[in-house]
Each structure stands twice: as structure tokens, then as C-alpha cells.
Task: inverse folding
């Protein structure tokens, strides 16, 4: 179980360090006048601090190294 969790943390840490964050798009209603409707797309970005990716990577390596092989 610890080895699996460690491997997942390693992968997430590497992705976090390489990618640096993610963004998503939402639609907002700007004008709604009866049958006429205007919307706009707004992009939101969520930065992922490099320290979080490094912490996940180090934690995953520690779990893999410390866990006992079966």
C-alpha cells in the first residue's frame, strides 16, 4: 500500500513540477434580454507552486524507500 501511494506521489510530483499549474474555462451570462442572450468565456488559471510538486516527489520517494518489500 505504501509503495503504491509513494508511486502515485512521485508521478503527481513530477507532473506538478513539469506542468506548473492548470487552467479552466467558464461561461458567464453577460446580457439576458428575453430571447437574446450574450455569454462570454472566462479563463481561470490555478498556479501550482513548485514547492508542492517537490514535496510530493520527496514524500513519494521516501514512502517507496521506507516501505518493506513483500
Result:
Amino acid at each position: 500500500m505504501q509503495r503504491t501511494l509513494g508511486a502515485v506521489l512521485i508521478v503527481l510530483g513530477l507532473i506538478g513540477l513539469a506542468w506548473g499549474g492548470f487552467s479552466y474555462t467558464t461561461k458567464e451570462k453577460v446580457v439576458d434580454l428575453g430571447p437574446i442572450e450574450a455569454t462570454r468565456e472566462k479563463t481561470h488559471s490555478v498556479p501550482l507552486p513548485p514547492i508542492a510538486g517537490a514535496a510530493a516527489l520527496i514524500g513519494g520517494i521516501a514512502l517507496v524507500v521506507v516501505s518493506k518489500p513483500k
User: Anything to note?
Assistant: The CA atoms of residues 13 and 54 lie 6 Å apart. Residues 2-66 form one domain.
